[in-house]
Amino acid sequence: MMLSFGIVDDDAVSRLMLQRIIENGGLGEVVGTADSGSEGEKILLETTPDVVVIDLLMPDQDGIETIIRLKERGFQGKYVMISQIENKEMIGKAYQAGVEFYIQKPINKIEVEAVLSKVHEQWKISRYLQEIQESLTKLSLLHTGSESMRKKRGVREILQPILMDIGIVGDSGSRDVMDIMEHLVRHHKGEGIPPLKELYETVARCHKVNEADVEKEGKAVEQRIRRTISTALTHIASIGLTDYGNPKFEHYAPLYFEFQDVRMKMKEIDENWKPEKGKVNVKKFLQVLYLEVTDKMRSEH
């Protein structure tokens, strides 16, 4: 199946160049173009391309605002930003809005082909994984009777391969994460999770400390978990640098971490920056891990 593209740029020459590079290079088919953000929003919702190549700066509605509005209206495509500016803050905002790749103007045929080829590879892997998941789901339904006779895996058995994938299976904080997951599965049936402080202190009590020391031990638990999640972020970012299309990177990077944190960590590793103090979204990480564990438990029921 051919990849479909939408192009939004107020410069007619840029639109034509991008369309020729995409179609003459066999990268896919351009199904819609627009010369403004507001027009682009309308055309993209009508044509629903797989990938949107969009200019950052446009007079009526810039690229970031257009992406945000498209997401609010349910558009699911991938985004590639093009721009002349090198303002790190603006580029950072673009990544936060959902941009996955960035192309510098003036447009260079080799760079565009390289970036869009990478987008194409990523899209094919996503489709392949989706097809596998659908096949496994159908197979599971066909064998409901025999599956129900199998012994269900416990929380720790489900967690083990996930923690191994993200490179933290031996970390001391991973044991705290396991304790939290077991507590949530046993005592918390909702989709959200309680306040983090409450979870840390619950784990502290599992360590059988005196009630007077629970708060202190809870802070120690927090620090261990933060260090462990930072280690996982570094591991996943390293995989992404080696192979952006690696299935582990594809799965864990967008689900478990903030996109800008992954990008920053990749730049930090690639350019040998001095590591910054661990900035990770602990709540998001634990929430996603909990949902993945409960989803696997339900599928094995």
From TrEMBL:
Residue span, Response regulatory domain: 4-120
This protein's record includes keyword Phosphoprotein: yes
Domain of life (superkingdom): Bacteria
Recorded coiled-coil stretches: none
Gene3D superfamilies tied to this protein: 3.40.50.2300
Family matches, as Pfam families: Response_reg (PF00072), YcbB (PF08664)
4-aspartylphosphate: residues bearing it: D55
Keywords: Phosphoprotein
Protein name, per record: Two-component system response regulator YcbB
